[in-house]
Amino acid sequence: MSPRAIAALILAGWRTALSYRLRFAVSMVALLVMIVPLYFVSRAIQPIMAPAIATEGSQYFAFLTVGLFASTLVASCVGALPDAISSDLTSGFFEAVVSTPVGAGSVAVGLSAYPILRSVLRGATLVLAGALLGINVVWGRLPEAMLIIALIAVAHFGIGLMAAALVVAFRTNAAIPQIVLLASGLLGGVYYPTTVIPSWIANVSDVVPLAYGLRALRHTLLDGHSIQMVLNDLGILTSFAVVLLAMGAMAYRASLHYARQAGSLSQY
Amino acid sequence: MSSAASEDPGSPLVSVRALTKRFRVRRSLREVARHPLTRALQTSLDDVSFDVQAGEFFGLLGPNGAGKTTLLKILATFILPDDGEARIDGYDVTREPDAVRARVAPVIANERSLYWRLTARENLELFAHLWRVPAGEVPQRIGEVLDVVGLTDTGRKMVGQFSSGMLQRLLIARALLPQPRVLLLDEPTRSLDPVSAREFRRFLREELTARRNCAVIIATHNADEALELCTRVGVMNAGKLLAIGTARDLVHRVGDDRYVVWTQTPDHPALRGFGRAEVLATEESVRSGWTPVSVRAVGGERASAEVLAELVQAGVPISRFERANVSLAELIEAVIRTAPDNGDRNGASENGHK
């Protein structure tokens, strides 16, 4: 890994975003505006949701805000790299980057780091705005929460690497980001706890990494649980992160080899 | 920069041996259904061998699809060869790609491969870090390459506001950032106006090959680049390297038996005795009344002197007798036409056909 190369690519992404000043400002304002209807809708359905989320913060507005934060993070971790490679293959930028001595891993992290960091920043802004509207965040558990957020990011970045590998080799992501987002939204506990999912589909929920990450995140950030208290979910999330990252890295390297063999690495 | 080849001054900076690359051909569903186990392959490079020394300018000529770009992409580590070997500064492009990438800079000709919302300096800064230019040297190196391509004054301008010529120069500046040992160029002046193209060629010759002792490999369809710039050229067709030599040698060889006679009697029967006398009317000939006619004199200088003597003896009025100019297209065509059996796999010989 080359931290210098990754930092340079992040800086380039940041400078590009800043060059669209109006768009940048509008997106931040829109984010803050979005939280207001979220607040009122959450309050309206609080009595219905309260029993189901009693062990995950008990406050539906907080539950939903944390869920949306994680969902945004998952979307960028899964989609940022395949999207970046897809457009950079077309423009020739990917060819220019891989012609440098920077390793494949640094290129992958560098191309996706800015969108992922931006989604973390947007998610943090959302949580902060929620705190101003009354979410009871246990700030003392922030280090634990950050560890869980990092593991969620790593696990889904592994899936992003697999989707990126398909883009490099076959110019398609096979709808992997969309499938993961759908599964995470419906079965990962973004809008409702996984305990209310019907038993016939609950087994599928067991293989959704976000389900474990979100449960652990809410327990620490909203209920003030320690790492020891969420060790079970954390262990499964860590296993997902290790396995998915290893699989993603292997698929990504294999795809680069395949593209070099097929001569398609610099076809645009 | 430490290098394997530079330790041995005799060894070439670029060494290509029996390089072969075949690409799978996409087949229709019907064909796949009929023959599911067979694979259709198209040979893009066929047993190509050559060397390029430090400070040398090597041109790759040939029609579209000849294999020039595939060869450049293999040297840039974008494509893996099937057979054979290519070494840059002693490092194998297949087994040591990282070491090769640290020494080779391909000029990626796509203008969109730059960040258009960033300035030229910001783009170069990004690539300076990717190329591992020492952090303390980055501003100075950027200043140098911008100066070299004549973009110093526009370094703070957003790249999206650049003209095509400026973008081309910026792409070249980007390739120069790592101070490469080998520069790979694929039709580099196609977007430049004639004056900028000439200036760019001067820069390549004086700065890169003469001063920095780089090896430059250039694929081109441009006669000025091939004939004036290149120390040697290689003519390719259908993946084979058919001939290597200095451009002048190849032109001389191909055009050796063609001469132009300027006469007032282009239909004189004596002219028909020397091949297919071809009338080459020009504006000048129409104005002056002297018409250029192409004739053949096989056998070098002595033969041409004999042809001239015979024509004079036959009473053909002649104002000029000169060797015919050979265009790049004619040169390529002639090399392809006169190349012996394309199935021969011995590789191109220096100054000779296969």
Quick overview of this protein structure:
The complex is a heterodimer of chains A (268) and B (354). By secondary structure, chain A is mainly α. Helices cover 78% and strands 0% of the residues of chain A.
Can you tell me about this structure?
The complex is a heterodimer of chains A (268) and B (354). Helices cover 78% and strands 0% of the residues of chain A. Chain A is mainly alpha-helical and 268 residues long. In chain A, α3 packs across α9 and α6 packs antiparallel against α9 (209-223). The two termini of chain A are 27 Å apart. Chain B is of the alpha/beta class. Helices cover 33% and strands 23% of the residues of chain B. Chain B contains 12 helices and 15 strands. Chain B has helices at 29-34, 68-75, 97-101, 120-130, 138-148, 164-176, 194-211, 223-229, 247-254, 283-288, 300-313, 328-338, and strands spanning 14-24, 41-52, 57-61, 83-88, 91-92, 104-106, 182-186, 215-219, 232-237, 240-245, 258-263, 278-279, 291-296, 318-323, 352-353. Chain B is globular and about 75 Å long. The chains are: A mainly alpha (268), B alpha/beta (354). Chain A binds chain B through residues 2, 4-5, 7-9, 11-12, 15-16, 19-20, 90-93, 95-103, 257, 260-263, 265-266, 268, and chain B through 21, 23-24, 44, 70, 73, 76-80, 98, 101-102, 104-106, 108-110, 112-115, 117-118, 122, 125-127, 129-132, 135, 158, 174, 178.
Mean pLDDT of chain A: 90
Q: Count of DSSP E strands of chain B?
A: 15
Number of strands of chain A: 0
Tally of separate helices of chain A: 10
Which key phrases capture this entry?
heterodimer, A: 268 residues, mainly alpha, 10 helices, 78% helix, globular, B: 354 residues, alpha/beta, 6-stranded mixed β-sheet, 12 helices, disordered C terminus
SSE arrangement:
The complex is a heterodimer of chains A (268) and B (354).
Chain A: H1 3-19, H2 21-49, H3 60-91, H4 93-98, H5 104-132, H6 142-170, H7 176-187, H8 199-205, H9 209-223, H10 231-262
Helix pairs in contact in A: 1-5, 2-3, 2-5, 3-5, 3-6, 3-7, 3-9, 6-9, 6-10, 9-10
Chain B: E1 14-24, H1 29-34, E2 41-52, E3 57-61, H2 68-75, E4 83-88, E5 91-92, H3 97-101, E6 104-106, H4 120-130, H5 138-148, H6 164-176, E7 182-186, H7 194-211, E8 215-219, H8 223-229, E9 232-237, E10 240-245, H9 247-254, E11 258-263, E12 278-279, H10 283-288, E13 291-296, H11 300-313, E14 318-323, H12 328-338, E15 352-353
Helix pairs in contact in B: 4-5, 5-6
